[in-house]
Amino acid sequence: MEQPRWLDAREQSAWRGYRRMRRLLDLELARELTRDAGLSEPDYDVLSDLSETPDQRLRLSELADRMLWSRSRLSHHLTRMQQRGLVAREECAADGRGAVVTLTDEGRHAIERAAPGHVAAVRRNLIDLLTPDEIAALDAFTHRVVDHLTRPGE
Amino acid sequence: MEQPRWLDAREQSAWRGYRRMRRLLDLELARELTRDAGLSEPDYDVLSDLSETPDQRLRLSELADRMLWSRSRLSHHLTRMQQRGLVAREECAADGRGAVVTLTDEGRHAIERAAPGHVAAVRRNLIDLLTPDEIAALDAFTHRVVDHLTRPGE
DNA sequence: CGAAGGTTGATGACATGTCAACCAGACACC
DNA sequence: GGTGTCTGGTTGACATGTCATCAACCTTCG
User: Fold this and answer.
1) CA A148, CA B127: separation in Å to the nearest integer?
2) Helix %, strand %, coil % for chain B, to 5?
3) Which residues, in sequence order, are CB contacts of B141 under 8 Å at separation 6+?
4) Closest residue (CA to C1') to nucleotide C25 in the complex
5) pLDDT grade for B74, boundaries at 50, 70 and 90
6) What is the pLDDT of residues A11-60, one digit of tens each?
7) Taking the CB of residue A18, how many other CB atoms lie within 10 A of it?
8) CB-based contacts of A110, cutoff 8 Å, min separation 6
9) Which of A4, A68, A120 is the closest to B119 by Cβ?
10) CA dist B60 → B79, B82, B146 (Å)
11) Alpha carbon of residue B52 to chain centroid
12) CA A92, A95, A99, A100 torsion: positive or negative?
């Protein structure tokens, strides 16, 4: 590790702001989601991803990849959601090892009930506080960073 | 919950990008920190906050507030860090209920060893990928959101 | 065929975070 | 000085996430 280039004042401030925002936004969104719909953020994400899928069914590994979760985490989480009746597991016809998650009626009901409030919360606490230019900047640089972090070489 | 205003394409994309970046960046920074310094991000944050304090000592509640942690979480975490010799607890002279955390020599050594690499990782995976304008925008809107979320009325 | 090697999920042990109950000292008020 | 309440911190039970490991299964190749 050679000479470190420390962050200048603005960079430091931006980095701290980012982390603080992240924490507070997380807390707030999770709080509203639990209060209004009885779901955690991970629950919401699973249901949301699943409900946007044509057949409302996904291979576990496919879902894990989309969510950037480990297979193990997904498996544990689905077990819990399954016990609450939000999703179901089925065997995969094409691959004997595989499994498929599906949305139960209760799961669909839950996400349909939760979505409007959650989107409103995201708006109120983030999106609507940003100017169109800032939204565009956020869109641009987050994708740039994601590309960097998922580049094969790194 | 009245008529929901869904997110338009750009907003949706920005929101997803944000969440994806957040997750990947977290993973990467945590990975490097563990590998290079044997610290978790929470460990690093505690040590860093502590080392920037004049006397390298802080009241628990003060530290908890700065980090946006619950007292309980901080207490648990400090117990673990204390067992590893990174910090120490002392009684508070001014308030018999209170306690003070201090940095041990080992703790100071650990943060001094970890900081250059961590800052470099933050640069490499985020800061240096943004234009100066984007840094400025990030700085501006994150603080705006933080203000919104910490406003007394909400 | 059948063994080797990679993939898919499930599982148990463990680390970490949250919530609620609790205790002791501070504080207010009579 | 009591007495009730508040505050700072600790603790234990529990929820969640990670890692290592395992069994079942596909695929390839001798």
Assistant:
1) 12
2) 70, 10, 25
3) A129, A130, A131, A134, A138
4) B97
5) very high
6) 999 999 999 999 999 999 999 999 999 999 999 999 999 999 988 889 99
7) 23
8) A37, A38, A39, A47, A86
9) A4
10) 12, 13, 23
11) 13
12) negative
CA A110/CA A56 separation, integer angstroms: 14
Residue whose pair of structure tokens reads 């925002």 in the numeric block: A21
Is any Cβ of chain B less than 8 angstroms from the Cβ of A5? Answer: yes
The residue ranges of DSSP E strands in chain A, in sequence order, are 57-59, 87-91, 99-103
List A residues 37-66 in contact with B (Cβ-Cβ < 8 A): none
Q: How far in angstroms lies nucleotide C11's C1' from the CA of residue A84? A: 20
CB B86 within 8 A of CB B43: yes
* Bridge partners, B89 (sequence order): B101
What A54-61 contacts at long range (C-beta under 8 Å, 24+ apart), as own/partner pairs, is A56/A102, A56/A103, A56/A108, A57/A90, A57/A100, A57/A101, A57/A102, A57/A103, A58/A100, A58/A101, A59/A92, A59/A98, A59/A99, A59/A100, A59/A101, A60/A98, A60/A99, A60/A100, A60/A101, A61/A98
Which residue type occupies A38?
G
Asked if residue B3 lies in contact with residue A128, where contact means CB atoms within 8 angstroms, the answer is no
Residue where the block lists tokens 């995969």: A92
- pTM score: 0.91
- What is the rounded distance in angstroms from the CA atom of residue A140 to the CA atom of residue B14? 8
